[in-house]
Amino acid sequence: MIELEDVHKAYVSGTRTQPVLAALSYTVASGESVALLGPSGSGKSTLLNLLAGLDLPDRGRVRVLSQELGALGDDGRTLLRRRHLGFVFQFFNLMPSLSVLDNLLLPQSLLGVHGARARQRALEMLEAVGLADRADSYADTLSGGEQQRVAIARAVVHEPDIVLADEPTGNLDAETARRVLDLLDRLVVRPGRILVMATHSERSAAICNAAVTIRDGALTSLPQPS
């Protein structure tokens, strides 16, 4: 479960303070998938950063899996991300100097999973995204769509409870975006992981079972996408 309680966040630039989130409260239940819709600059990425513990609110509380992120400290938040969160980004964020397989072995290694067990899990996930034949390729030799499919495999290879996705189809053509959404649906939504996805696209939002719009620092629930 994710719980936001009276969350405020602003950024300071020189003498100017720019509010981003204001008195924001929301709960994402276990097994729920939520689309965050809103224009650029509305605070979608800021909210994802708060959920990941990469940033902290100026006021209010963020609880992830019953743990208040502000009380965990840097090391505690790092361990929470490593064990329980997966990430999918618009620009993939793969390690270009590593092979596709090694990109999937890395998050497992950080959890102490090595050797045949880690390799088997990585190959299973590459098979699931249709890229088992590219295991030995370097990440930067893949197409954008292939890199995003690897990024999804990497996000779930360690079986996280929560996947955070920031505009995962924003850099892809329509057909590739459809394939990526199908994978997110199959590998994240249907298995019952929590998915919080920032997106401009109502088509992307349709894979989620709840949608909210973020505007002027507040969340408003929308009818379930169809």
Provide an overview of this structure.
This protein has 226 residues and is of the alpha/beta class. It contains 7 helices and 10 strands. The chain has helices at residues 44-51, 69-84, 100-110, 115-128, 144-156, 174-189, 202-205, and strands spanning 2-13, 16-28, 33-37, 59-64, 67-68, 85-89, 162-166, 194-199, 210-215, 218-222. It has a 6-stranded mixed beta sheet. Helix 5 (144-156) runs parallel beside helix 6. The protein is globular, with a radius of gyration of 17 Å.
What's the topology here?
Layout: E1 2-13, E2 16-28, E3 33-37, H1 44-51, E4 59-64, E5 67-68, H2 69-84, E6 85-89, H3 100-110, H4 115-128, H5 144-156, E7 162-166, H6 174-189, E8 194-199, H7 202-205, E9 210-215, E10 218-222
Parallel strand pairs: 3-8, 3-9, 6-7, 7-8
Antiparallel strand pairs: 1-2, 1-4, 4-5, 9-10
